[in-house]
Amino acid sequence: LERIADADYKLGETGITIKKGMTVSVPVYCLHRDSKYYPNPERFDPDRFTAEERAKRDPYTYLPFGAGPRNCIGMRFALMETKVCLAYVLANFIIKKSSHTKVLYMSTCLKFERARSPFQQTTRFI
């Protein structure tokens, strides 16, 4: 999830200023797995999305479709499609976990590196 700052913005008392034109990236995958907001984030726990639990945390800690006026235009369709598919599967299949099934964990991370300059850089002390 990325946005471009349309004005300079100071981040509270941190001393950090986001300059106009800078790209701000929100690491949604990491945010959704932050134990500060979601205890035991890797555990399947649908109760964390009850109205009572959602009221305990900032609404911008869960952004599956982005946020604001530029969120995903396919959000409503995706949610409806998911419900229809789930209803079909539950109505037509019996789902069991095999004793041989291994639980797979997905690891994603972004690695930021300094861009390589096409120019040779040297430091000269005067």
From TrEMBL:
<keyword id="KW-0349">Heme</keyword>
<keyword id="KW-0479">Metal-binding</keyword>
<comment type="similarity">
    <text>Belongs to the cytochrome P450 family.</text>
</comment>
<dbReference type="Pfam" id="PF00067">
    <property type="entry name" value="p450"/>
</dbReference>
<protein>
    <submittedName>
        <fullName>Cytochrome P450 9e2</fullName>
    </submittedName>
</protein>
<keyword id="KW-0503">Monooxygenase</keyword>
<dbReference type="InterPro" id="IPR002403">
    <property type="entry name" value="Cyt_P450_E_grp-IV"/>
</dbReference>
<feature type="binding site" description="axial binding residue">
    <location>
        <position position="72"/>
    </location>
    <ligand>
        <name>heme</name>
    </ligand>
</feature>
<keyword id="KW-0408">Iron</keyword>
<keyword id="KW-0472">Membrane</keyword>
<dbReference type="InterPro" id="IPR036396">
    <property type="entry name" value="Cyt_P450_sf"/>
</dbReference>
<dbReference type="InterPro" id="IPR050476">
    <property type="entry name" value="Insect_CytP450_Detox"/>
</dbReference>
<dbReference type="GO" id="GO:0016705">
    <property type="term" value="F:oxidoreductase activity, acting on paired donors, with incorporation or reduction of molecular oxygen"/>
</dbReference>
<keyword id="KW-0560">Oxidoreductase</keyword>
<dbReference type="GO" id="GO:0005789">
    <property type="term" value="C:endoplasmic reticulum membrane"/>
</dbReference>
<dbReference type="GO" id="GO:0020037">
    <property type="term" value="F:heme binding"/>
</dbReference>
<dbReference type="GO" id="GO:0005506">
    <property type="term" value="F:iron ion binding"/>
</dbReference>
<keyword id="KW-0256">Endoplasmic reticulum</keyword>
<dbReference type="InterPro" id="IPR017972">
    <property type="entry name" value="Cyt_P450_CS"/>
</dbReference>
<comment type="function">
    <text>May be involved in the metabolism of insect hormones and in the breakdown of synthetic insecticides.</text>
</comment>
<dbReference type="InterPro" id="IPR001128">
    <property type="entry name" value="Cyt_P450"/>
</dbReference>
<dbReference type="GO" id="GO:0004497">
    <property type="term" value="F:monooxygenase activity"/>
</dbReference>
<keyword id="KW-0492">Microsome</keyword>
